[in-house]
Amino acid sequence: MKNINWDKLKPYSGDTKKSFEELCYQIVSEKFKNDILNGAILTSIDDSGGGDGVEFYLTYENGDIYGWQAKFFANNRLNEGGRKEQIKKSLQTAYDKHPNIKKWFLCSKGNLTPDEKNWFDNDLQNSVKNGKTVLPLNHNIKLIHWGESELLNYLQDYSNIYRFFFYEKILSFEWFKNRYKIDENRRQIKHKYMSKIHIQTDIDNEIIKILGNKRLAIILKNEIEIHRLLDDQKSYQKDYCILFNENINDLYQELLNKFREEVNINKYLIDNCVNRLFTLINLLEDKDILNSKKEINLLKEDIKIAKDISIKCRNFIYSDIYFETIKKDNENKTNPFNKFNFTFNNAVSSLEWCFKVFELLDENELHISGDAGMGKTHVSFNIYEDQIINQEEPAIFIFAKEISIEDNLENQLKNILSIPTDWSFDDFLGALEISARVYKVKIPIIIDGLNESTHWSSVWKNGLEKFILKVKQYLHIVLITTYRSSYEDQLFPNKYFEYDDKWKLKKYINGFEGLNWKAIERYFEYYKIKLENHSNAIGYFKHPLHLKIFCETKNHKRTEEVKVSFKNEDLFDVFDEYIKRSNNNITASLKELDPKYNNDFTEKKLLQLSKYFWENNTRGMPRSEKLFSNDELRIF
Predict the structure, then answer these.
(1) Within 10 Å of residue 202's Cβ, how many Cβ atoms?
(2) How many helices (H) and strands (E) does the chain have?
(3) Full DSSP string of 226-254
(4) What is the pLDDT of residues 207-224, one digit of tens each?
(5) Buried b or exposed e, range 396-408, using 16+ CB within 10 angstroms
(6) Can you tell me the distance from the alpha carbon of 226 to that of 220, in angstroms, rounded to the nearest whole number?
(7) Which terminus has fewer CB within 10 Å in the chain: N or C?
(8) What is the pLDDT at residue 588?
(9) Contact, 399 vs 377, CB < 8 A?
(10) What is the pTM of this model?
(11) 514 CB-near residues (< 8 Å, 6+ apart)
């Protein structure tokens, strides 16, 4: 790359100027990555009104600030259209708003001419704006210009940024959305997934916990309410005041002094933790991933301190000095310690439960297993749909069935995703990471039905762990897989989930267990079914496939409401009816090819297919066996 073709710069939110600002932001994120990891905070702001003098700035722990201003001027020259006045205003405002600013970077898409460079280096700071010099005489700000030469060097160093911003046909939100439109119209999705009847389960929440952002903020709010954290906080404040009040019974005064000495509790510790949780809700809603993680770490430290104090409180309650004192208080009516210990422990316990919301947020993989027909595809595609349609955030969905040959896994994924031929799969993941950073999200790569790949044993057993390790190099990419539980040992390396807390990366889907009636109501409303009476056999409907087959059989067309009565033996009758109807549909389609076909044909062929599976210990039959003609196979 000898120069930058700015005409190929991918618009961001439909705005090329915004895209240039984001490009500069991502370059700064890479160039100053070590500083950021060591505590410096990179803050992006909306400077569309020119009110801050910088698009974003980097704040160091000592208070020093570096600021960047991006100007996407059409033909690069500074002496046109009041551009110098714009620059003077930005620099002056930056100094007024950020007195500790030490470096101010002006980014533009072109290099400066010698005259422009002289103006920028020497005249700009001493020029007048708004009746005063742009910078005071005693300033110590270093002015730095990043033009095409500097940006070109950075884009060569950080090629992932270049790939994302300058390849127009891939990784734009339209690219993700177009992939979704294709996926939602695939036959296997139309057969397995209906958005209107999706039931939110614990598995959906586990996926949200690893992806984060606004939906995680909702879960956190619910946890705060469920565990009555605010009530526990009030109780703690009340009992703290009672325990540390100067009017405490003289009998307990010496004990209180000893308690203060040993426990050394901070009155505002619980309040600080609660405040951090609400700060996290705001950060998650603002998609501020970096500061969310910093706040989570601070909260973790505070909860650890609270837990340590809780242990000290408990130990104190069982100490000799405590027992000797309460013996003197025969009726034990004025003892404030037990009540305080109780309310403090409750508050700490509630905080710990709320903090569990974040236990997956730093992870890059989640694997969902379950028996056949338990809704694995329904859950995974619903998350995909929600990401693209409702959240308007990128996501990738892959049918493992499309991984159909024994070729290298990454080569097959490149082909499925239509990745440019001059990109390696590493190039794609790198550009995808930049995409995630730009959109301020974690992007899921969802691979549904690992066990449905034609050569699943060789492809995944040899390639899955390697693929996972590659994904883990990128902080903002998450791999989510689904598979049938019975295939786990064949898909994953030996004892994969038994080391390094990997057990929490595997979730088991239990269908509608605990949500039977909610699911029945949702499905029956959709299929226009009115249930008049039922038996205990209705518990079978915790299995999503059973419920769907029942509804499809009873009222497939949904043109008018039907009344049904469900008895113990009815489920088997429903299966027979469903199979019979499916057979009739197949036979009717086959008869359009040739009148010779009858209802016995399907049963005969399926028996032959089952026999082949059994005798060959396989789950597939090669086309070379010629069990079906091409037309027959298409209809089946």
Answers:
(1) 14
(2) 26, 14
(3) HTTHHHHHHHHHHHHHHHT-TTS-GGGHH
(4) 999 999 899 999 999 999
(5) bbbbbebbeeeee
(6) 10
(7) N
(8) 83
(9) no
(10) 0.87
(11) none
